[in-house]
Amino acid sequence: MVLYDASPFFFAPGGRGGFAAIEAHLPSIRALGANAILLSPVTAASPGDFGYAVTNDFRLRTSFGTEAQFRSLIRAAHALGLRVLLDMVANHLSDQSPYYRDAERRGRRSPYYGWFERDRSGRAVHYFDWTNLENLNYDDAAVRRYMLAAIAHWLAGYHVDGFRLDAAWAVRQRDPEFWPTLRSRLARMDPDVVLIAEASGRDGYYVSHGFDAAYDWTSQPGRWAWDGVFAPAGGRPRLGRLRAALTNGGRGYPPHTLLLRFLDNNDTGRRFITRYGVGEMRVAIELLFTLPGIPLIYDGDEVGAAFEPYEQGPPIGWRDPDGLTPLYARMAGQRRNLRALTSPRLLLLGTDHDGEVLAYLRPGAGGEPAAVVVLNFDRSPVRVRLRDGPALNRFARATARSLATGGQWRVDLPDEALALPAYGGVIVLAGVRSHAAITPIRAKR
User: Fold this and answer.
1) Could you tell me which residues are beta bridge partners of residue 374?
2) N or C: less crowded end of the chain, CB within 10 Å?
3) Burial (CB count <10 Å: 0-12, 13-18, 19+), residue 248
4) What is the DSSP string of 333-385?
5) CA-to-CA distance for 416 and 413, rounded, in angstroms?
6) Quick one: fold of 347-429?
7) Tens digits of per-residue pLDDT, 211-245?
8) Residues 15 and 8: beta-carbon distance below 8 Å
9) Residue 309 has what DSSP assignment?
10) Can you name the CATH fold of 3-91+136-337?
11) Which pLDDT score, from 0 to 100, does residue 432 have?
12) Per-residue pLDDT tens for 27-79?
């Protein structure tokens, strides 16, 4: 999967008419190389909120468009071969929801009073500074029934393909059996339903309790695993931190873990390109698409959009001043054509420039050739030699390809040095003298 996050707020002013605006942009998303879209919360929410202050999990947010327009968006995505995932909120309801307002007004006489987790004094509780997002009480059977029915409603009634479950870590804390119960129910409706946990992939609970993937976080909720790795323009990267993140501190990840990897998402604040510059952005894109896991393209990353998500706009202008769109498309094409890039295996390799260069082996699968990826995070070109000779024996008379341009040449590893451009890299394919060009995307009919 190559996942594109599409938020109505960034496709139309204030999100109004966002469903139709996203539908109009689907061919561009598909041409970028994505094969799935993730829609930020589309359910009814408090006015002015991004979408996580849900007021009703069964209703669409009318400002984004009509039900007919939402169904048209899903049909159009499927016609282009794009799966559709919804961002669903199971942890809480808004303090403006009719359920919470009834509980506040009527107290214990309200049938919804027990729907909300409360402290000893009876006050509803929440996480962090989410003062308007009241935790649901999963000890209440009615809450479980409500949430199971709500998520199933979108799968059965609209034929979406999966869900990103917001704050999955928080629901797990209060009811660790809810997620496998949900998976069981949804799988009876669609065995191929995709579930992504907003939680750390370092915790094996999620992939063993019904989820297909989890976030590339540290063990701390919301903390990006690559935090502190990249440097502003002219600075030096901290590749030791990156190597530790890729191997979970040398311990490896729990079996069958699939990580959702990203440069930007709704919670990362200032955009990657704003913080680190175009050069680091380019090499980070090459990294993102050559690692195991699911690469996420966030709204407008492909054109260097520099808004902050919770400012909700302005809508993205689709001009691409830095030429990032063709790089995204090329990297998605590499991933689509080289099975080694979608395998779960990764072996870090040593180089004679470990402070600036990251190298790793992606073993092939099913008789497909293995690949070595070598990335230069420095602002200057470099010639680099790889170590770990035994792991590279199969790369004599191999084919090297520029990740940025697609140009190819023959190389003998580990004896021969590789010439790397500033902020860029190469991929080396074992056992072939040349490799076919990237197959263009064709829409499914």
Assistant:
1) 359, 426
2) C
3) middle
4) HHHHH-GGGGSS--EEE-BTTTTTEEEEEE--STTPPPEEEEEE-SSS-EEE-
5) 6
6) Immunoglobulin-like (2.60.40)
7) 999 999 999 999 999 999 998 877 889 999 999 99
8) yes
9) G
10) TIM Barrel (3.20.20)
11) 53
12) 999 999 999 999 999 999 999 999 999 999 999 999 999 999 999 999 999 99
d(CA 291, CA 334): 12
Helix/strand/coil (H, E, C) string of 232-299? CCCCCCCHHHHHHHHCCCCCCCCCCCCEEEECCCCCCCCCHHHHHCHHHHHHHHHHHHHCCCEEEECC
Q: What is the H or E stretch that residue 399 is in? A: strand 398-402
Stretches in the chain below the pLDDT threshold 50: 433-445
Q: Which two tokens stand for residue 128?
A: 């962090």
Neighbours of 256 (CB within 10 A): 10
The answer to whether 209 and 171 are in contact (CB under 8 A) is no
**What are the tokens at 222?**
């919301």
The token pair at 337 is 């054509």
Q: Which structure tokens are listed for 26?
A: 């689907």
Positive or negative torsion for Cα 270, 312, 11, 199: positive
CA distance 351 to 93: 51
CATH 3.20.20.80 range(s) for the chain read: 3-91+136-337
